[in-house]
Design goal:
This protein is an alpha+beta fold. It folds into 2 domains: 142 residues, 2-Layer Sandwich (Fructose-1,6-Bisphosphatase, Chain A, domain 1); 95 residues, D-Maltodextrin-Binding Protein, domain 2 (3-Layer(aba) Sandwich), CATH 3.40.190. It contains 7 helices and 14 strands. The strands form 4 sheets. It has a 7-stranded mixed sheet. α1 packs antiparallel against α2 and α6 runs parallel beside α7. The relative contact order is 0.15. The mean pLDDT is 94.
Length: 251
């Protein structure tokens, strides 16, 4: 598992470098059939990651966002990779820094390993569930850990694109909230994993490749990702679509 984590971290880092180069050179934004945006950065980063995973571990299937969008359908297996080469394409296209490269490994429906690179922030978070989570930035690497909710209440990170949803307001009304911030992409999970926030409610559509890697990092840091019923968020669902979920620091 450590060798697989090293592979995922390396490929996420290489994809992040490719994305930074494309961002600096300029790019156009296209619209896919599901009305979501896609750019050259999405496609080049995914090609780099999928080629690297398949070359290194050809026995582990790869499910990647842009391949699925193009009609390449891989059946769920007991063990498989989930790849989102550019999570937060809307943020990337808008010139914000809230986007990430996500590579996660699923075993028997559960995320067990994740690497999440944040290209604009020059950092990468990674973890093995049951073994720990880390952040690498500026050549320095440190162990990270989720926190228990402080007495003053929850620090909440919510999606920028659902910040005015009445469902979110109703959800937060059930909790003692000290602070609320709205940002895009997998970075919300990472702030919980670092112990800088406590709660990320997601009441809107996500796909398995959006959540696998950051969920693994958060759970490796001691957090949890639960469905409305209180069950852990699991993988291999029809159409790769997630239900609403709630990400927490230490419960």
């Amino acid at each position: 598992m450590q060798e697989l984590l090293t592979l995922a971290v390396r490929l996420a880092d290489e994809a992040a470098a490719a994305i930074r180069s494309i961002r600096a050179a300029g790019f156009s934004v296209e619209t896919k059939t599901d009305s979501t945006p896609v750019t050259l950065a999405d496609r080049q980063a995914e090609a780099l990651i999928t080629a690297g995973l398949r070359a290194a571990v050809p026995d582990i299937p790869v499910v990647a966002e842009e391949e699925v969008a193009a009609g390449r359908i891989t059946a769920p297996a007991p063990r498989y990779w989930l790849v989102d080469p550019l999570d937060g394409t809307r943020e990337f296209a808008a010139g914000r820094d809230e986007f990430a490269v996500c590579i996660g490994l699923i075993e028997n429906g559960a995320p067990v390993l994740g690497a999440v690179a944040s290209p604009a922030l020059q950092e990468i978070h990674f973890g093995l569930v049951g073994q720990g989570a880390w952040r690498r930035k500026g050549g320095m690497e440190k162990n990270i850990s989720a926190r228990h909710v402080p007495p003053e209440g929850l620090t909440v990170f919510a999606s920028r694109h659902y910040q005015h949803a009445p469902e979110l307001a109703a959800c937060l009304a059930r909790h003692k909230v000290a602070q609320l911030a709205n940002i895009g992409s997998a970075l919300k999970f990472l702030r919980l994993a670092e112990g800088n926030a406590d709660f990320y409610p997601r009441l809107g559509r996500t796909m398995e490749w959006d959540t696998a890697a950051p969920q693994a990092v958060l759970e490796a840091a001691g957090g949890a990702v639960l469905t409305e019923s209180g069950a852990p968020l699991r993988y291999g669902k029809p159409g790769w679509e997630n239900p609403d979920f709630f990400a927490w620091g230490k419960l």
